[in-house]
Amino acid sequence: MTGLLDLAVVVPTFNERDNVATLVARLDQALGGRRWEVIFVDDDSPDGTADAVRDLGRVDARVRVIQRIGRRGLSSACVEGMCATAAPLVAVIDGDLQHDETLLPQMAALLVDDPALELVVGSRFMAGGGTGAWDRDRVSKSALATRLSRRVLKAELSDPMSGFFMIRTAVLRQVAPLLSAIGFKILLDIMTARARPLVFAELPYTFRIRTAGESKLDHVVAMEYLIALYDRRFGRFVPVRFAMFSAIGALGVGLHMAVLSLLYVAAGASFLAAQIVATVVAMTGNFLLNNTLTYRDRRLRGWRQLVDGWVSFCLVCSVGAAANIGVAAFLHDVREGAWAASALAGVLVGAVWNYALSSRFTWGRY
Ligand code: GDD
Ligand code: MN
After folding, report:
1. So what's the pLDDT on residue 365?
2. 366 in a structural domain
3. Same domain? 269 vs 155
4. CATH number of the domain that 220 lies in?
5. 225 and 255 fall within a common domain
């Protein structure tokens, strides 16, 4: 023991109250003889995970919690936890006991022995590793995700989806500003952040089955994975959020036309009334979709936040519509023949306006 803090373990948690104490006890066992600390990064879990960690922290100062309010996301939680330690090495491990904490000393030893090494990854898919009791469905999904990742990853990682690894904190701080921190795929994000992939080693382990709490890997997480891949390949040209916002905007146009034709053509309402209802329906639909998809990590919840958000979104979009029409009319005046190009320029200006202001005023406040 050197007396200096040498290792931090970051544990992202969401509803893992019943696993916290066991994990800390197991870390204590595995890391005996070292100076270490554990940082739980909890997204304000309703089950009181953060309180459970604080209870332990009062008797053991090595145990800390970062409680994030109004935020969600595994990757961003890991990044914030890793940036919160003074230790030179930091590991990320799941809070549900599925990762094998007894691997940590070996991971640390590799990094200490070889100064050129930057990262050690726990792998389920190399000789000696395994996925334990996974069903066929999960195995094939994981294999598909791994294959897709090869398109952005320029390194031969056997388990790029792994959520279990150890990295030098100096390296992490260097790449942190380059991370997209979307969704679950923190390791992939770190590996592809720099032009040159990180120098890594892999150690095998067997993924355990979960005994308490439940998995948060759902369809939205799968979608976020695709988004993260998009971000790495094209995000430089068109930011992910803007692409999603625009795609949802296009859906909104479809919804608007559908409601308009239903009311005006089919039900015989006046054009003005039909147009007003269609606009409100489309704006509300877009607000809700953006709230669950584009801004999932800053999602507005509860009636008050939703109503406030909806009002500000409608205000922003009204100004956006005025800008759209103004720009299109101006360009059309300048070049009479270019009506389609003028209209498209108007739509683009409106979209950028709506995106920029709603990210600030609708989803930027909590
Ligand atoms: N702070 C925070 N915020 N933590 C979260 C969030 C979130 O939004 N979502 C999940 N977590 C925590 C969980 O509480 C758990 O400690 C850990 O992240 C992993 O989440 P699980 O829901 O248990 O994921 P999994 O077991 O299905 O997925 C595992 O395998 C994947 C590969 O197949 C994880 O290790 C993933 O990282 C890995 O990619
Ligand atoms: Mn899990």
Report:
1. 67
2. no
3. no
4. 3.90.550.10
5. no
Ligand 1 pocket test, pick from 9, 19, 79, 94 with the greatest ligand atom count within 8 Å of Cβ, gives 94
Residue partners of 153: CB distance under 8 A and separation at least 6: 160, 188, 191, 192, 197
Residue nearest to atom 8 of ligand 1 (CA): 73
Q: State whether 224 and 251 are in the same domain.
A: no
Same domain assignment for residues 24 and 113:
yes
261 lies in the same domain as 223: no
Q: Total domain count for the chain?
A: 2
3-state secondary structure of 33: coil
CB atoms within 10 A of CB 269: 16
In a domain, 150, yes or no: yes
Residue 141 burial class via C-beta count within 10 angstroms: exposed 0-12, middle 13-18, buried 19 and up: middle
Q: Which domain holds residue 172?
A: 7-234
Asked if residue 2 is part of any domain, the answer here is no
Proportion of the chain above pLDDT 90, given as a percent: 55
Helix (H, G, I), strand (E, B) or coil at 363: coil
According to the model, what pLDDT value does residue 247 have? 93
pLDDT of the residue at 202: 96
What is the number of the ligand closest to the CA of 215?
1
Read off the pLDDT of residues 252-300 as tens digits, 9 standing for 90 and up.
Answer: 999 999 999 999 888 888 888 998 899 999 999 999 999 998 998 889 9
Measured from the CA of 217, which atom of ligand 1 is nearest? 27
Tell me the CA–centroid distance for residue 163 and ligand 2, in Å.
9
Question: Is the distance from the beta carbon of residue 292 to the nearest atom of ligand 1 less than 6 Å?
Answer: no
- Written as six digits, the tokens of 135 are 């069903």
Predicted model pTM: 0.75
Q: Are residues 144 and 204 in the same domain?
A: yes
For residue 352, CA distances in Å to 8, 85, 245, 323, 349 come to: 42, 38, 10, 10, 5
Instruction: List, for the chain, all residue ranges whose pLDDT scores fall below the cut of 70.
Output: 1-2, 133-134, 181, 183-184, 365-366
